């Protein structure tokens, strides 16, 4: 699904360029950059999570996880709930370890 979204975005970009709608093109690019769902591409979601850990944005990390939980994880079958909880716990542990390493090296 991610590749279909990307192709559609590229076609829209080409049309906007062809018609000279530069302002609309800028808005489209800004919306794509700000897209929380990242086209539901796993690599983009992981990239966003890791970026939030690396910049020590705990509130952003929690907010993004809650967003994913509401939009994606809540729709999973119950058998996957424990896996999602383990993933969340591991992500917060990774954040904590990353923070501690920075504190001890400074």
Any key phrases for this structure?
106 residues, mainly alpha, 5 helices, 0% strand, flat
Explain what you see.
- It is a single chain.
- The protein has 106 residues and is mainly α.
- The protein is 78% helix and 0% strand.
- The protein has five helices and no strands.
- It has helices at 2-19, 22-34, 42-54, 58-71, 81-105.
- It is flat and about 55 Å long.
- The chain starts with a helix and ends with a helix.
- The mean pLDDT is 86.
Alpha-carbon distance between the termini?
A: 43 Å
Low-pLDDT ranges: none
Mean pLDDT: 86
Largest sheet: none
Tally of extended strands?
A: 0
- Structural class, by secondary structure, is mainly alpha
The SSE order reads HHHHH
How many H/I helical runs? 5
Strand content: under 5%
- Backbone CA Rg: 18 Å
Helix fraction by DSSP (H/I, runs of at least 4): over 70%
